Amino acid sequence: MALDSNWLVDLLGRTPASATVRGFVFNAMLEYLAAKKGSEVAASVLERTLRKRPADLLSYPASDFFRLLHACAEALHAPEGIDEAVRQMGYASADGFFSSPMGKMLLSIVGRGDPARLIANEPTAYATSFSFGKRTFRRLGPREMVLTHTDDLLPVPYNMGALEAAMNSVGAKAQHVKPEPVSEGHCAYTIVW
After folding, report:
1. CATH number of 7-192
2. Cα(15)–Cα(128) distance, rounded to whole angstroms?
3. Helix 7-14 vs helix 62-76: crossing angle, to nearest 10
């Protein structure tokens, strides 16, 4: 499902007022943008979208998160297009999660080298970051699994990047994340390593 020019408007139209996102996810995207495009660009995006930096452990409206995601992806100007920029934001967000106290605790529990054990805990990891969506895990084989997202607002490219970062966080090499969209907000991600 490639993102079109109206993806932010469509997404905001589906986002309930009760949906929230933790501050560290916002900040991870801003830090990534600053590293790629400079602190002035990141500061400008922050000023246009949120005004001030969120506190890492507090939750903020998902609509603000999606506005920031859109602005960061636009500012990134990935040569491969908006889907790639959104994927990079997903990767940066998950990387930020695994650098947070909650993420570090999860990695200490699951250990390195066992992607299935980490992905089996992804529903909990997502739930600590996002108040919306349901995720279920199913093992398909020794080096293959599927993570199904339902009632999810996150764009497919964002989730692909986040899952790639999760795999990298446990040292999985040669991973492949293949999305199989079912309907709006429902996608199965097959992960092979």
Report:
1. 3.90.1520.10
2. 18
3. 170
Question: Cβ distance 165 to 96 under 8 Å?
Answer: no
Structure tokens at 184: 């709006």
Q: Which of 66, 61, 47 is nearest to 3 (CA)?
A: 66
Rounded Cα distance between 32 and 41, Å, is 11
Mean of pLDDT over the chain: 92
Residues 6+ apart with CB under 8 A from 192: 143, 144, 175, 176, 178
Q: Write out the two tokens for 58.
A: 């507090």
Rounded to whole angstroms, the Cα distance separating 180 from 188 reads 5
Residue 99's SS3 state is helix
Tell me the backbone φ, ψ of residue 13, rounded to 5 degrees. -65, -25
- Locate all alpha helices (DSSP H) within 61-175, ordered by sequence: 62-76, 82-99, 101-110, 115-120, 122-129, 156-169
- pTM for the whole structure: 0.93
Residue type, 43: A
Task: Give the SS3 label for residue 178.
Answer: strand
- Exposed, middle or buried, 179 (CB in 10 Å: 0-12/13-18/19+)? middle
Residue 1: band (very low, low, confident or very high) from pLDDT cuts 50, 70, 90: low
